[in-house]
Amino acid sequence: MKHTLRITLGIILVIIGMIGGLIPIFQGWLFGIPGLIILADYFPPVNRLLQWAKKKAGYDDKNKNNNV
């Protein structure tokens, strides 16, 4: 049940983000990116997209705890 709710929430956020991309006043990426992050746990293609985006942005999970 928990997984179904998370997947549904992720899909809803992505849809809102796509609609927001069509409306000039609405910032769709604020909803689309969190939706993709949620869906990355369940769908390998979305996970690969997320890993690629992290790599392009220079984000490294290994260095997350070294800044303490």
Which descriptor suits the 3D outline? flat
Beta content: under 5%
Number of strands: 0
Distance between the termini: 37 Å
Report the average pLDDT across residues: 87
From the structure provided, what is the oligomeric state, counting identical versus distinct chains?
Answer: single chain
Classification by helices and strands = mainly alpha
Number of contiguous helices: 3
List the helices and strands and how they pair.
Elements: H1 2-22, H2 29-39, H3 44-57
Helix pairs in contact: 1-2
Describe the structure.
The chain has 68 residues and is mainly alpha-helical. It has one domain (2-54). The protein is 68% helix and 0% strand. It is built from 3 helices and no strands. The protein has helices at residues 2-22, 29-39, 44-57. Helix 1 packs antiparallel against helix 2. The longest helix has 21 residues, at 2-22. The chain starts with a helix and ends in an 11-residue tail after the last helix.
